[in-house]
């Protein structure tokens, strides 16, 4: 092969490789420039001229479609943002409505508070709320959810932010009774793995207690730390031991979706 031909072949291969690495839009622009450059020298009415015109029209049409697509995508993103804001406002409105309804229906004097922080670890079961001693809060006040279920008790009240020890914490103890029975016991939190739904244990029941799955558990008011008849949870399983029986309980409160709580301010104390 002659040196000139070999050099031409190398240039062709290099040029082909360069073109293949370009984006589709860049290749189109190169083709457009090429056809615009040769359009003055190709024959009028020839197939090459017709092909060049059709190609140039296609490029212009593609660029126009690209602009319209980009505009549509921007409009779509804007509407998604608006829809997200509307859903957020609807959620806040529903929470406010639920809070107002709960305050009207409950027999207790309650102050609503927003949950502003949750413990990241499953076994560190405390939350923080945006109310405190400025609202008359003191230690051990009972805290409820919007469905009336027991959340826990005020643990560390601050001026504007307070900590609540949840009923699901291992350090929590609540005197409780089982519906339609004479059984009473002590509800404590049970450690679970990270990501698992929290569970409770009802201990010191009669070892042969007639307890079935689905029975409700309520506070019994002993010790006056928690008012009586507040829903705690539902029996999931019962185990009879050599001395006492124990039951596993699913809490009445969905702690993973807890956003608003209600602090009872008129409960009796010893």
The helix/strand order is HHHEEEEEEEEEEEE
Report the helical percentage.
Answer: 25-40%
- CATH topology term of the largest domain: Thrombin, subunit H
CATH superfamily of the largest domain: Rod shape-determining protein MreC, domain 2
Give start-end ranges of low-pLDDT stretches: none
Distance between the termini: 108 Å
Based on the structure, what is the oligomeric state of the protein chains? single chain
Structure, explained:
β1 and β2 form a beta hairpin. The chain contains three helices and twelve strands; from the N terminus they run αααββββββββββββ. α2 runs antiparallel to α3. By secondary structure, it is α+β, with helices and mostly antiparallel strands. The strands form two sheets. A six-stranded antiparallel beta barrel has the order 1-2-5-4-3-12. A six-stranded antiparallel β-barrel has the order 6-7-8-11-10-9. The chain is 34% helix and 29% strand. The mean pLDDT is 77. It folds into two domains: 105 residues, no CATH class; 162 residues, Rod shape-determining protein MreC, domain 2 (Thrombin, subunit H).
């Amino acid at each position: 092969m002659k040196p000139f031909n070999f050099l031409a072949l190398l240039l062709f291969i290099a040029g082909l490789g360069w073109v293949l690495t370009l984006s589709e839009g860049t290749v189109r622009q190169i083709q457009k420039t090429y056809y615009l450059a040769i359009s003055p020298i190709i024959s009028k009415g020839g197939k090459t001229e017709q092909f060049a015109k059709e190609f140039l029209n296609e490029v212009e049409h593609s660029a126009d479609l690209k602009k319209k697509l980009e505009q549509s995508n921007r409009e779509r993103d804007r509407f998604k943002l608006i829809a997200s804001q509307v859903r957020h406002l609807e959620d806040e409105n529903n929470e406010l409505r639920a809070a107002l309804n709960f305050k009207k229906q409950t027999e207790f004097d309650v102050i609503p508070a927003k949950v502003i922080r949750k413990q990241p670890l499953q076994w560190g079961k405390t939350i923080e709320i945006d109310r405190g001693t400025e609202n008359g809060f003191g230690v051990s006040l009972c805290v409820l959810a919007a469905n009336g279920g027991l959340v826990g008790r005020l643990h560390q009240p601050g001026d504007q932010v307070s900590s609540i020890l949840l009923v699901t914490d291992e350090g929590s103890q609540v005197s409780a009774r089982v519906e339609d029975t004479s059984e009473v016991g002590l509800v404590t939190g049970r450690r679970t793995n990270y990501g698992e739904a929290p569970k409770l244990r009802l201990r010191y029941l009669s070892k042969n207690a007639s307890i079935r799955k689905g029975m409700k558990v309520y506070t019994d008011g002993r010790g006056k730390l928690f008012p009586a008849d507040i829903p705690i949870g539902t029996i999931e399983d019962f185990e009879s031991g050599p001395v006492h029986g124990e039951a596993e309980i699913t809490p009445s409160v969905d702690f993973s979706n807890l956003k608003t709580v209600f602090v009872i301010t008129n409960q009796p104390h010893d």
